[in-house]
Amino acid sequence: MELTSADFEGPLAQRGIGIIAPFDLALERELWRWAPLEVSFHLARTQYEPVTVSMAMAELVSEPRHLAEATRSVIGVEPEVVAYLCSSGSFIRGLTYEADLQAAIRAAGAPQAVTTSGALAEAVRELGLTRMSVITPYDAELTDKLHDFLGELDVTVLRSNHLGLGGGIWKVNYRTVAEMVIAADDPSAEAIFISCTNLPTYDIIAPLEQELGKPVLTANQLTVWACLGRMGLPMVGPGRWLRGVFQDDLEPPPLPQVPEPAAEPDPVTERDERTS
Description:
Strand order of the largest sheet: 2-1-3-4
Distance between the termini: 96 Å
């Protein structure tokens, strides 16, 4: 067989996503599994801070000046979008601050910006979610901040489960995460959100969605999904309810029909009935 110049046209044209990661991120490999072959990720990290995973750490790694500096370090390779890949750092001060973080990234030269919690907000709106369960690897204080963020989106957190870890989150095994998800599920929850971009989730999403019959949304999944949506590209990998959301010719499957939470009994009415 004789080769011609047509056989050497080169690889698919590369399309880039800039990633601003917290200094302790150890799950870069998950990002690549979500994206089509032509997408490359270009990572920059926030500066190292000698603190445990906590409110203090979330505040330190989400300072706009750090995000601006990291953005400037990746725009040289012309990414189409730059994402701040951090759940707690982007939800800790609510929706207004999340918008400020996106603005800081764009002001530093990014053509488009995403944050993990902003992507969560987009998924909530796109799927019409109002009742969710959540799990986190954080302590109770930081987990409560996630509840507050979802509250701003008019989402009620029905059940919540957290690990209380101060570090080494990437070392948590799949079994632990899956057991937490199952324990946190509520029959009335329309979806479950697994927070933290450093918590392994990729291979358990599909079996959990099949078992529970509802969306299982994760931090890395949502971040890449939102980036690819801005690029007009489909998400690959697990997450059946998110597929096609940004594409005109595809529709995500309808959300499962879940019952409304049972109304709490009125203690005054109950007392009156007992004494009548």
